[in-house]
Each structure stands twice: as structure tokens, then as C-alpha cells.
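FORM 7B: Structural annotation worksheet

SECTION A. Query
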Amino acid sequence: MTKTSVLGSHTSSLRDSWWYLEQDADGSIFVRHEDDEDSSKNWRKPLHEVMAGNGSAKKLVQERIDRMFEDRTTK
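SECTION B. Predicted structure
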């Protein structure tokens, strides 16, 4: 069974796009992108491939990681 969490979304008058963080039953982690208007733009990539790139998906993942490890004692 795959576990899924929403990383982020983009909504405009032209289309809605969603990014998901997914973990398969074997523990491997992927990022999945869905474009509601153009399914040819949908993809699913291993986390390491996304983090090696410079796209918006990398930024979403990095923001999630930063939130996980932020120091909440100084706020």
C-alpha cells in the first residue's frame, strides 16, 4: 500500500497542479505531479531524482524537510 501526502498545489484560471510525496510498501519514496488539464504532464519520480534537479518540486520537498527540522524552541 502506498502512503501519500500532499506537498503542494498550484491553482490558476488555466489549470490546477498538485505535487504529492509517496512512500511505497517497500519503503521507497517518490514525488508525483498531476496536472488536471494535461495528463501528459503527469509524472512520478524517485525522491533523489527530484532533489538533484532545480524545479518547483525540489523546492516543495526542501520546504517540507526544513519544517521538519526547524528549531521551534527559539520562537
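SECTION C. Observations
The radius of gyration is 14 Å. Residues 56-69 form the longest helix (14 residues).

SECTION D. Sign-off
Analyst initials: ____
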